[in-house]
Amino acid sequence: MTLDWSIVWEYREDLLHGVLLTIALTVITMIVAIPGGIILAMMRLSRSRILSTISLCFVELFRNLPLILVVYWAFYVMPIVLGIQIAAFETGLIALCLNVSAYNGETFRAGINSIREGQVNAGLALGMSRWQVMREIVIPQATRRVLPVLASTWVSLFKDTSLVSVIAVGELAHVALQIRSQTFRVMEMLTAMAVIYWLLGYPQAKLVDWIHSKFKVAE
Amino acid sequence: MRPCVTAQDRATERDQRGCLLEFDFSPVVDSWRYLLDGVGISLMLSVWTMLGSLALGAAVGLGRVYGSAWLRVPLVFYIDTMRSIPVLVVLVWIYFAMPLLTGLNLSPFWSAAVALSLHIAAYVAEIIRAGIQSVREGQTRAGLALGMSTAQVVRVIVLPQALVRMLPAFGSIVSVTIKDTAIASVIAVPELLRRSETLAGQSFRPIEVFTAAMLIYFLLLVPATRLIDLLYRRVAHLGRS
Amino acid sequence: MTMIAPKESGSTPSPVLIYEKVRKLYGEFVALDEVSLRVDAGEVVCLIGPSGSGKSTLLRCTNALEPISGGTIYFDGRALPSVDRDIRKVRQRMGMVFQNFELFPHKSALDNVAIGPMTVLGMPKTQARERARALLAKVNLADKVDSFPSNLSGGQQQRVAIARALAMEPEVMLFDEPTSALDPETIGEVLNVMKALAEEGMTMIVVTHEMAFARRVADRVAVFEHGTILEHGSPEQIFENPETARTRDFLSHLGWDG
User: Do C230 and C244 touch, CB atoms closer than 8 A?
Assistant: First the structure.
């Protein structure tokens, strides 16, 4: 088997473009999914039965579906239901946002719940309103607990962006697979794809480890 | 009248011309056996993946905790690599590139089983490591003080407690496995998602078919995780030291 | 310590808190069974009794952290409100000190004390911090102003907690087993702060197991059992001449022989 690795260098611009799209998908999704998750958590913990149930259903639904299926479903269903043609990039983005928001909703809920009831009582005893207790006491502490989980979710999201390649969004996986089809350089492109993901993902994974160690919760 | 398939269709529907925006699940119902076989493949793939990842993951996890330093380095590298690379990439590489390297041609199903196992085993290894390390050191010391060997301590004292603590995390492994089998559709494994795509294409009823697929996956996944939850709650007290 | 309102025996007592046949149920379990008690201004009332007898429950009902199931609690002549906003106003006039201190770990000692005035009373930060500084000095922690709870001993944390409650300038202080979670060496420093507070004329309800403290500082002692008050009276009465046999049993169980 003769390998010609120069093919990777030849297509470096396309690959770089793919990387940028991967990063864009990750960043934009997180920007949407963090507030999204907070809202879902607040809804779940609110005293309104309706809001709580809606949030529960949303979270349970998207946590129990394969992301790749949600991508397909969004691709086929959304144009028909909404009546407008949405580009593949936006479609993929929406699927990712729905999915990650649901996970974050659960993360934030668990984080908020983990704050001891005594802390809430101490705030209430001072005469604070429930909202003030949330803002001053619960959320700052919950953030510390939530950060490591969010970091792990970020890395998972980064990897999951590869799934939107199935609807021809031009992120890294799609670009690499396209080049493979065009040039028939299977080993080179697939290995290059793996290596590029590794180069991007490994530092992120190590960063997550560092965050986990730094924000270790000592009770 | 043909059903609405594109956005263009939807627009014309408003003028009472063109296509039907009614839901017609008959293609789904008619092909239920086709989809059910797909579910069977998905579940088979899940089972093989879980077996593979548990076996490999246990070996790696135990090796990480009790192995020598030179063993730990490649194991950690393997775990971190699987954490960095998407499962789709591993899958595609195993199916398309590995045969070129090894001359071994695996069917789509077995390529998927191998790739998924490799990927998920890394998580299993981490869970096992965390579970073992969460058992208080005093427990190990108590066992050694009684005169037990390290192997006995691990087998009799540490692992039973660790296994109970790992149960919730294993629940999520089951869930992740079943969800990841859907990715195998990319290399044409005839599991549920692949068959849903085919059916959607043939019947021009993507909404109904994919909605049905979503329902089936949901009904598969929710009981699986609930079951593990229930099991954990029953035995949780056994793991507390 | 400055004396705010010297206690005179003979001045007409004004009731700050009146508990009238208070009942509290947790499902089927009766935590409080028609408890009636009166607390006058400037009084220190100690609630003693075995665990689970309802003492802490009564305290938590006093500032409406728990709703009562029956009866009425009167604060300053008016029944405890049920509307959230009015409850908050009432809580601002009461201070609570918890067994587990419950300091906010993400804030320094200074900010823990200042957070009440700042958030609840809307006091500007500098003013709130000034008040906090003065209060921390009062509890002998002037040098720990910038320390975080994780760097303070249990006794120090509890004193910060007392300062935090005092920052709201309450009319009543509720202490829920304030020294139960402390090392023996640090119990004294907290009890001294509480004693000084009592001497200044603060109305205090203290759930405690520290009999020596109750004996010396309390104006009245109420003995709880199974959700009711067995008997109440002056410390001399309770500790030297308990009326009921069960009180005698309880006291002897604690190894108390005067």
Answer: yes
Query: Each residue's pLDDT tens digit in chain A (219 positions)?
Result: 678 888 888 999 999 999 999 999 999 999 999 999 999 998 998 889 999 999 999 999 999 999 999 999 999 888 877 777 889 999 999 999 999 999 999 999 988 888 888 899 999 999 999 889 988 898 888 888 899 999 999 999 999 999 999 999 999 999 999 999 999 889 999 999 999 999 999 999 999 999 988 887 643
Interface test with C, best of A126, A128, A138, A145 (most C CBs within 10 A): A126
Domain A6-214 top-level CATH class: mainly alpha
Rama region for C217: left / alpha / beta (φ>0; ψ in -120 to 50; rest): alpha
A:118-147 residues touching chain C, CB 8 A cutoff: 118-119, 121-130, 132, 136-137, 140-141, 144
C-alpha distances out from residue A153 to A28, A189, B20, B68, B217, Å: 14, 27, 41, 31, 22
CA-based angle A186:A192:A195, to the nearest 5? Answer: 140
What's this model's pTM, rounded to 2 decimal places? 0.76
Q: Domains of chain B (ranges plus CATH)?
A: 48-239 (1.10.3720.10)
Cβ within 8 Å, pair A187-B197: no
Cβ within 8 Å, pair C63-A119 = no
Best mutation site among B89, B127, B194 for testing chain A: the one with the most A CBs within 10 Å?
A: B89
Complex-level ipTM:
0.89
